[in-house]
Design a protein that fits this description.
Number of strands of chain C: 2
Mean pLDDT of chain C: 82
Strand order of the largest sheet of chain B: 6-7-8-3-9-10-12-11
Number of helices of chain C: 13
Shape of chain B: globular
Number of strands of chain B: 12
Structural class of chain C: mainly alpha
Oligomer: heterotrimer
Order of helices and strands of chain B: EEEHEEHEHHHHHEHEHEEHHHEE
Number of helices of chain B: 12
Strand order of the largest sheet of chain C: 1-2
Largest interface: A-C, 40 and 53 residues
Low-confidence stretches of chain B: none
Distance between the termini of chain C: 20 Å
Helix content of chain B: 25-40%
Radius of gyration of chain B: 21 Å
Distance between the termini of chain B: 40 Å
Radius of gyration of chain C: 24 Å
Structural class of chain B: alpha/beta
Largest sheet of chain B: 8 strands, mixed
Chains: A mainly alpha (about 290), B alpha/beta (about 325), C mainly alpha (about 325)
Strand content of chain B: 15-25%
Order of helices and strands of chain C: HHHHEEHHHHHHHHH
Largest sheet of chain C: 2 strands, antiparallel
Chain lengths: ~290, ~325, ~325
Amino acid sequence: MSIEILDPVADVIEHAPDTRRIPKLGFLGWLSVAVIAFALFLAIFGPMLAPYDPVVGDLSYSDVGPLAGHPLGFDYQGRDVLSRLLAGARTTIFGAGFVALVAIIIGTSLALLSAWFGGKTDTFLSAALDVLFAFPGILLAVVAAAVFGASLFSAALALAIAYSPYVARVLRGAALKQRAMTYISALEVQGFGAWRLTVRHLLPNISALIVAQGTILFGFAMVDLAAISFLGLGVQAPNADWGVMVSDGKTSLLLGYPLVSLSAVFCIVAVVAAVSFLGDRLESNSKGGNR
Amino acid sequence: MTDLLTVTDLTVRLKMDSGMREVITGTSLTIASGEAMGLVGESGSGKSMTAKAIARLLPDGAETLGSVVFDGVDVLALTGDELREHRSQVAVVFQDPRAHINPVRRIDDFMTESLRTLRDVPKGEATKRAAAVLEEVGIDDPAKRLRQYPHELSGGMLQRVMIATALLSEPRLLLADECTTALDVTTQAEVMAILDDLRRERGLSMLFITHDLELAGAVCDRTTVMYAGQVVETREARLLHGDPLHPYSAALVDARPDIDSTADRLRAIPGRPLSAFEAPSGCRFATRCSFAQDSCREHDQVITELDGGLVRCERATELRGKVREGAHV
Amino acid sequence: MLQFIAKRLAMLVATLLVASFAIYGALYLAPGSPIAALTGGRTLPPEVMAQIEARYHLNEPFLTRYWLWLTAAVHGDLGESIPLHESVNTLIAQRIGTTLQLVFFTAILIIIFGVGLGILGALGRGSVDTGVLFASTVSAALPAFAAAVILQFIFGVTLGWFPVIGTGEGFVDTVKHLTLPAIALAATSVALVTRVTRTAVREELDKEHVQTAVSRGLPWSDVVRRHVLRNAAIPITTIVGITIASLIALSAVVETAFGLNGLGAYLVQAAQNKDFAVVQGISLVLVVAFVITNVVVDIAYAVLDPRVSLGSRAQ
């Protein structure tokens, strides 16, 4: 007794991107945002705020514990740990940001191409991605280090490439769903071109998911990049970087002076936890229709 | 005929995010042995919940008041093994068969599970019985179907499988919850016919839940209409369709387009159906009733007997014969 | 079903071909000539250089070289490490045992704790669930190297319960030595598996077909076993498979942190020393392992979910 009417107008209204609404995050969500904001602040201003030289130390202070003016003590090279933490924020955080950004750009482009053209393009790209899936991020970074020499850039680029297929796969699904919606067909019929439709209509409607994915990726990137620096194949000593610090501090830790490694670990874990939590929240919001 | 099922003053509250919400208020109905009772209402009327209460399938945290007596047993008080025994006596056929069958197990596994687990029937024997019932519901080559997985069968076939499975455990009461709604019209008719035949053959009682008054009228002995969690009318099925007592039942009948006449507009009931917890005090249908008067809105309506049926409307006697379209008061 | 497996194996071979091509080709991306890359920039006497040229067929076209390398690899010969004058095979064989032990141990931890806690959280009472959620959030925040360092400090240095470096001799000793590394490696994976398991079981509990089983009067233990867990096994097996596959690369970090002489740690060293043949050889081994693991996961998925391989043949 009930008739279902397909209402293209309702479809449009329902799916117009609502960019004005502030996402619902809850207390922990906003706390995460605060932590991330603080980390970003350190990333930008950290090196300038460091009270002592983060790179060159005084060996006579090697592995000395906390003193007045040096709340976290010194590392094995006699460098002030706090200063190194402040300075190290930059490479750790910007490096991860670079990875996330590049991975999102590559992944989104591939996903949109796949979703828009479908058919052979989709099959080909999916097959290509399948091959890329065979390379774990760390492996690719290690090979890159062997080929190009160990550096933050080679490691970050390698990670970004290794992450792209995951982004592409998730976004492809969402993009395909959008592509199939009636409002796109309606606009197509009116003569709007593929580029315009993709950028001005499709993209905004998956933007929430992209941001969520980007946030989650940032967390993974931070961990992987720090791990690679820990292995000595990313940021190179004597630069300050949280991953490098964990590695630096290992010998000291085994001798009973854990502060270097542990403080760096704490910073990494805090930011990663905040980012993961925020990413999860954003993702469930984007799916739960918090538009 | 003795009453197999007696529901008295059933009130159910469900736990929702916003707190406990009442979905059924003081509902009573009886089903005799071998009788088919239709339960008709729109969404939110409480009809599905009534069935769930009878089968003890309400969600966690639900509050149930009143009494449900099945074959002399107080259903609401059952626990453990006795509860499981009760559940096997009351077979439920659900609306969306595909969602209600485990997709990763074969059909024979699904059909014989109850027999094997609860009644210790050996696998070979159980499979034979399953094949026999499948033939009864009109499925060809039952042996082949039994070896298949649910995704290999169409919706209509799956619903027949569900009905067959329900019959396998030889229940006394069949609860059919909108079991044909998800099917196309032709399949609907076939499934209804099978259900009706088998029911009569085996002398099963049935509670047939639907939003389609006419369908209920075709298959059932008596029909109960629910609105906003309350029973508003109970009457012999054919009579209810031709000569309703309650304005809501009449509106439901009128809303169905008549193939023999032309109309400029479809007759819809103004407003939207309410759940029990959204309904106003006084007559719950008053907001949408074309016969509502102030007194209706002031008094909570009670069930009264009228012409062999039960109706919840203080104006029922007054409106006798005039509730259908075209009658003005 | 067989068709499905055949298809997957074909894709596996194709992927490996392309991947091996990429691994081999990476050498030529290196700045400078291939010889410089192979020798790591060291200068060697002319006869040795000539030997290298012959050995690596450097005068022949790229594709020929790739083919020769690949066929040799398939036959088990991964070339020779120039700085060390040892066959890559030997170098790998010496270390693969440690890595396999570590990955195996870690996999057991992931399955027992990840799946176990997930099921506990989904089926248990509210307080149990909260406990599980909390534990998994903590665990999730500890990437392998962080966990490694923390564990080393607390249990190794401070409490002295476990050794912090090296592999140990004999079964019990090895287990002792691998305990902290395995826990460190397992930490984030356990958290992920717990979460997915919990969600999968929870979702399955709410499904209509479970309600049907209950409505037929089946005992709860049967319902859980035959319908909830059996169906939830699909996504659970997938995530367990994926996390175990990821261990392959992650082992490098933990092995380095704990001074274990495994493939991963050696790969890192070889990369630092620009020992190219070793990097290629180990990379190939790891990629093969990774891809094979993923194919096994795919096949397991198809076995558990008949809808995948048989497709829909509704009449």
